[in-house]
């Protein structure tokens, strides 16, 4: 398959990003892929094809670095059609035990980096009057689990950003999807992708039990990252991709149950809600 479509994928040296890049290249797409370690990226992808693969070393918390990578992509391929903000990591622990520096860092990577990538690529897409932005969120951004408050907050922020961004960009023909998976076998629960602070405080039983259960499930999550990557590619070829896409049976169940609970609560408190107006 030959296609002129150009993808720009962050966090591409491992996990979902790496699998996606490999499938894109196998499918004939042109791909600009970012990583903090470009040699690791090249070795992981295993493809040296300057015509279709552009590995980029990028500090996604540096606007100038992002801008340079965008310009390199344009110089090499001439356009950017699909952006996948995949770079990010997890964080588990109690709010009172996670250090301030760690809190700020995960927001820098999971939220501000994605926003900065969008900032730098939007002028390109506006000029093209087309484009597709895929932000990799999490079901935790809508339905969190004990001990994941900070991570959930970052993914909730990314989901809200995506929702309003879609409204802002509709007139330019630019589409937006926030992908919200449950557990997938991407190495997410390994030390490279998870900042875990074990609680030393008496109590917090729900947090400790959840951490134990999640860590024991590493490598046996039900989600298939190969299928997830295929779905992303299919969405990019769709004329009307969804704004929210939950991936995995667990993600569907959790989101569905929360929507039911929210609807019931909204109805139960309607009289109080509307009484706040003049």
UniProtKB/TrEMBL annotation:
The chain crosses the membrane at residues 132-151. PROSITE patterns: ADH_SHORT (PS00061). It holds the Pfam family adh_short. Keywords: Membrane, Oxidoreductase, Transmembrane, Transmembrane helix. InterPro entries: NAD(P)-bd_dom_sf (IPR036291), Sc_DH/Rdtase_CS (IPR020904), SDR_fam (IPR002347), SDR_oxidoreductase (IPR051911). CDD domains: 17beta-HSD-like_SDR_c (cd05374). Belongs to the short-chain dehydrogenases/reductases (SDR) family. This is SDR family NAD(P)-dependent oxidoreductase. It comes from Niastella soli.
């Amino acid at each position: 398959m030959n296609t002129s479509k150009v993808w720009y994928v962050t966090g591409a040296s491992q996990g979902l990003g790496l699998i996606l890049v490999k499938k894109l290249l196998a499918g004939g797409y042109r791909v600009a892929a970012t990583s903090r370690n470009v040699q690791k990226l090249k070795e992981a992808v295993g493809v040296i094809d300057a015509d279709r693969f552009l590995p980029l070393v990028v500090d996604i918390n540096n606007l100038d670095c992002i801008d340079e990578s965008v310009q390199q992509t344009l110089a090499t391929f001439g356009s950017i059609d699909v952006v996948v903000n995949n770079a990010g990591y997890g964080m588990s622990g109690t709010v009172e035990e996670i250090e301030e520096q760690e809190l700020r860092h995960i927001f820098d990577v999971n939220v501000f980096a994605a926003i900065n990538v969008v900032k730098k690529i939007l002028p390109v897409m506006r000029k093209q009057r087309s484009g597709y932005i895929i932000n990799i969120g999490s079901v935790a951004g809508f339905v969190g689990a004990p001990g994941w408050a900070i991570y959930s907050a970052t993914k909730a922020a990314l989901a809200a950003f995506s929702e309003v961004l879609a409204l802002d960009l509709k007139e330019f023909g630019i589409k937006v999807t926030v992908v919200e998976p449950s557990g997938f076998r991407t190495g997410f629960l390994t030390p490279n992708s998870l900042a875990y602070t074990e609680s030393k405080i008496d109590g917090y039983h729900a947090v400790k039990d959840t951490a134990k259960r999640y860590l024991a499930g590493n490598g046996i999550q039900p989600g298939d990252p190969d299928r997830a990557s295929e779905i992303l590619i299919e969405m990019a070829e769709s004329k009307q991709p969804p704004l929210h896409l939950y991936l995995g049976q667990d993600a569907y169940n959790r989101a569905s149950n929360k929507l039911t609970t929210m609807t019931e609560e909204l109805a139960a408190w309607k009289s109080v809600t509307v009484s706040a107006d003049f």
